[in-house]
What we know:
Structural class: alpha/beta
Number of helices: 14
Number of strands: 16
CATH class of the largest domain: Alpha Beta
CATH architecture of the largest domain: Alpha-Beta Barrel
Radius of gyration: 24 Å
Oligomer: single chain
Amino acid sequence: MSPLMRAGCMAPIICVIAFLVWAPGCAARYEATWASLDARPLPRWYDEAKVGIFVHWGVFSVPGFGQFSEWLWYWWKSEKRREAVEFMRKNYPPGFKYADFASEFRAEFFNPDNWADIFNASGARYVVFTSKHHEGFTNWPSADSWNWNSMDVGPHRDLVGELAAALRKKSLRLGLYHSLFEWYNPLFLSDQASGFKTQEFVARKTLPELVNLVTAYKPDLIWSDGDWSAADTYWNSTQFLAWLYNDSPVKDEVVTNDRWGKGCYCKHGGYYNCEDRYTPGKLPDHKWEKCQSIDTRSWGYRREMKLSEVMDLPSIIKDLTYVVAMGGNYLLNIGPMSDGMIAPVFEERLRGLGAWLGINGEAIYASKPWRVQTENSTVTVWYTAKNVTIYAIILGWPSKQLLQLTVPKMSGATKPQVTLLDYPNIPLKWAPLTPTAGLMIAMPTMPASPANAWCLKLEGVV
């Protein structure tokens, strides 16, 4: 019998999960233990996708102020950041409450088909959308978030449902970001005061909403967050994941990250996010993802955002190629405005990324890390591989039109062929650096690239 059932279930949803995972005679493939859950193979689609778009959108998009603008409520109420306190004092009357922002979160220009078009044009294969951030406001009509959801107040729309339908029309995978905790939910604060010996918040809020999201929208990915306050045993994470992998409607295709309790990240779960903007110094031995915001100061939209604080296209491509060469996925974030508009600078960056991938995506999608990830010779080079084909992504154009690659070796079986993906049917001239290794490649005359990055396809090398 489940430990939860022995202790007495606190809510029907926990009882259901416990029964599905632990019932005698149940043919569940995965047990509610990390040893069992961590052994689940990662669904293939995720590793092959490589590129995703992250979307932070919620009530925090209304004030749209400050570094990490999605944390404004916490910065203001806790008085952790003086600029947040001063912003609220100067711009809002005494007695104004954070909840008052919700009626201004109207999403009047939100067109999910337009969003899906932009995301599709970016070359992304999946989109991770904020279903609920730490403020607790749900972007779908959650029955467990009365009057603090997008149907009851503000947009009066099912934002998750509308975007999910639009993404699927473009064959984009749906990911849902979900915060396990909520800063000021009384149930969570009560559990916290008990030293997390009680689980009322988990029983009545976290788990019901997670199950609701899965059954209602059938996401391909769950991006969990807000786990750091308490251990996974408080969140009942392993019980939920066992249900998700064994009995949920997405059990075969769903992907999860690693934020399921204090001490879990970079250790347990599906793929690893580790910390925000995770940048490993060597090739990881586990599938991972880097989340990176185009606005380098915030995940949510900031009204005071400056162009100098926004990643340019060469920086995005450089970051992407590093991540993919190191075996990761790249999740690039935007924060839409509260009215549902995506800032033109964000759209421009996403479409620029898509234009580059339209030419060079062969080196990105479904690729694998090569035996050597990078070298710095004539220019910085990152390598990826696909079967017996090697790709060399060069950051910057070599002077005098000559590019030296020292790492590739002659296979001995076939004469190497080198092509530029911009002109895939025109072999480039090259000469060996030594009888067995290295290539000196004569590069063609090329116009400037907005991304300042090009890709060579190397065949017949090892």
